[in-house]
Each structure stands twice: as structure tokens, then as C-alpha cells.
Amino acid sequence: MKIRRADADRESMHREAEMLFLANKAGVGPMLHGFSHDFIAMEKISGSYLGEWINDFRDNPEEMRNVIRALLEKSRKLDHAGVDHGELTKIKRHFIVTESGPRIIDFESASTERRMQNVTATAQSIFLNKRFASRLDPPLSLPDPRDLIDALSTYKQNQTDYNFENIIEVCNLI
């Protein structure tokens, strides 16, 4: 359950519920159960934020690779659905790893009017944020930043399957 704060600068929860509905159609985000002017009823996501989860799985590079790849794939689903999350650069607050896999949460700032950049924001947050990336290496082999920036730039201009798979390859997530 999410409740609109009395001091919130938005009139209602309708826009966030609409973005969450679109994300759900793409198979992303907590399931929307219903909403009203001041409330959103949604699935409770239980798990660890990605940063905390990484600490517990440093001895399992294969699992780390799988979770990070799954986050990029979910980000791609949002790109295809025409929903830009808007805050995937804030890695500490928007990625939760559950027993069934990683999830993207909090669609308050999402938009269908901006250019889709979920994959690029997620990859940048994970691999180009030096503070976060340093927690991955070792056990993972980090991509060369220039190669990743080139792959992300190519994907940003043309969001094809081929360009997405190139990002996966550059990030050593195969």
C-alpha cells in the first residue's frame, strides 16, 4: 500500500498507478491491485535492495551475473513498453532482489513522454557508478567504461535486440 502524503506536490496517485499498470503489462514492477485518489494497493515486494544483496552474493559470481542481466532485461521491457522509469540511476532505492529474481520498484517519476532510457540508466548505475561498480570487481569482470559507453550510445540511438545483446556482451553477462 502506498499512501499520498498530505504535503505531496501531486494531486493524486492516478498517474503513478497508470505507470505501474503499464509496467505490469510489460511484466515489470509490483502488481497493481487497485488505486484511488490517495492510495495505491500493490503487491508487497520482499527482498533486499541490490546493494545489500551484492554483499551477500559476492561468493557467487554466476548468481550476480544472472541478477544483473535480469535487471537489464526488465529495463529493456520498460523501454519496449514506452515507460521511462526516470530514477533508475538511484540504484539504492529502485532495485530489489527477491527469491524469484530482481524487481524494479517505485514508478512515481515514470513517464511515457520522455525518451526511454531504462537500459542505459540501469547499466550506468551498475557499471559506471565507481562506488557501486567497485563492489562487483571482483568477483565479476567489469566492462571497459569506453566500450560500455559506446554500446549504450548505440543502443540509445537504436534500441534493437542486437544492440541490447551487445551491451550484455560488453558487460560480461553472457
Provide an overview of this structure:
Helix content is 47%, strand content 11%. The longest helix has 21 residues, at 61-81. It is built from eight helices and six strands. It has one domain: Transferase(Phosphotransferase) domain 1 (Transferase(Phosphotransferase), domain 1), CATH 1.10.510.
The named CATH superfamily: Transferase(Phosphotransferase) domain 1
Work out the helicity level.
Answer: 40-55%
The rough form would be described as globular
End-to-end span in angstroms? Answer: 37 Å
Give the strand order, joined by hyphens, for the main sheet.
Answer: 1-3-2
CATH architecture designation: Orthogonal Bundle
Order of SSEs: EHEEEHHHEEHHHH
Radius of gyration: 16 Å
Beta-strand residue percentage: 5-15%
Q: How many DSSP H or I helices?
A: 8
Based on the model shown, name its key terms.
globular; 3-stranded antiparallel beta sheet; Transferase(Phosphotransferase), domain 1; mainly alpha; 6 strands; 174 residues
